[in-house]
Amino acid sequence: MTDAALNVLEHRLADLDRVLVAFSGGADSAFLTFVAHRALGAERVHAVTAVSASLASDEEADCRALAREWGLHWTPVATDELADAAYRANDTDRCYHCKTELMHVVGPIAERDGATIVLGVNVDDLGDHRPGQRAAAERGAVFPLVEAGFTKAMVREASRELGLRTWDKPAAACLASRLPYGTPVTFRTLTQVDHAEGALRRLGLRELRVRHYGDTARVEVGLDELPFVIAQRESVIAAVKGAGYRYVTLDLEGFRSGNLNG
After folding, report:
1. Tens-digit pLDDT profile for the chain (262 aa)?
2. Cα 216 from chain centroid (whole Å)
3. pTM of this prediction?
């Protein structure tokens, strides 16, 4: 199944000729970037990473590393979604405002390159609440993985077959997704979440979220990692409190991507 979809994807990218990939370093955008680079070459593929307080510092570092490993034409660009009061208000359309800022920044780069902006949206993403997709599509971005019929599982399978180390990389959404809707997004809050999650990853946890509730952090980890968290309770507490939280709670339902949506 993935071979046929990969063939469709490569032909679609060839039709586009030149692309600017919104490269977050996650499994989907990494796969799309790698395939585009392989199909079109570095001179026709520009991987661009939006860097702001909303992007985990570990993710920016991994984008830089992947660009070096794969020989990408890669550019980090600063976005300033926090300057938008609508984004800071953190309503259910927060992602719309974030993607609007992304397109505002990368649009001129794509125009200069004569390229089409492509995003690593897969078929499964279409069923979630993702207003950012609407903002991107309204401004001319296209979703080649969707056009080729790639689900998340297919992206991971094809990535593994291609030998990409990102094939099993845990999802890493924008840091603002850790805040319940209605909680204002601030630089301080995003930094606090980033520090807490980074400290937990350094303990060895892979799939996690630190949900922000004022001075309380609600930690979600994969169900298979719950025993580790209990066994390393004191280290986990110290890691999260070290980021500035007063209380540390553990969600016994475990990690659920996008569980603050809606």
Report:
1. 688 999 999 999 999 999 999 999 999 999 999 999 999 999 999 999 999 999 999 999 999 999 999 999 999 999 999 999 999 999 999 999 999 999 999 999 999 999 999 999 999 988 767 788 889 999 999 999 999 999 999 999 999 999 999 999 988 889 999 999 999 999 999 999 999 999 999 999 999 999 999 999 999 999 999 999 999 999 999 999 999 999 999 999 998 775 555 4
2. 24
3. 0.92
| Ramachandran category for residue 70: left, alpha or beta (phi over 0 → left; psi -120 to 50 → alpha) | alpha
Structure tokens at 121: 């949206």
CA dihedral 232, 237, 238, 240 (to 10 degrees): 120
Q: How far apart are the C-alpha atoms of 75 and 65, rounded to whole Å?
A: 12
Handedness of CA 81, 82, 84, 85 (dihedral sign): positive
Spatial strand order in the sheet of 73-78:
73-78, 45-51, 19-22, 116-118
- CA 138, 78, 38, 28: dihedral to nearest 10 degrees? -60
Write out the two tokens for 24.
């977050």
- With beta carbons less than 8 A apart as the criterion, state whether 20 and 46 touch: yes
Q: Are 101 and 190 in contact (CB under 8 A)?
A: no
